[in-house]
Fold this protein.
Amino acid sequence: MTQVNQIYKCDVCGNIVEILHTGAGELVCCNNPMKLQEENAVDAAIEKPSDTKVMEDKHIPIIEKTDRGILVKIGSAPHPMEEAHFIEWIELLVGGKSCKRFLNPGDEPQAEFCVQEDGVQARAYCSLHGLWKS
Ligand SMILES: [Fe+2]
């Protein structure tokens, strides 16, 4: 049984889908079951072992209040935004709303949302390292 907001990926063609309504069936793409993307909350990705910033995480969304709403930055050390490795989207989940900002290589790894509610959750999807949440 799927759950609302779950993310599934096809390892064959790269399709990624998000559940908007639960159902009992298995999601299939390219004749294979799609894989549920786990929401990582601890960053074990060591991207540059010789880098002194190795312990700083590059994936956990950081949520900050601003005058206009909420700013979500990806990583205490900014995540790379290169063609082969970048944050594809940042999502804010709050009060039954899902706000998503799609990013491109070269963009800053952050997104601002005009949302005033408290108790927000943020998720981000890295093209190499998958789904992250805070
Ligand atoms: Fe990454």
Remarks:
- The chain has two domains: 7-36, 52-133.
- The pocket of fe (ii) ion is lined by residues 58-59, 79, 85, 126, 128-129 (CB under 6 Å).
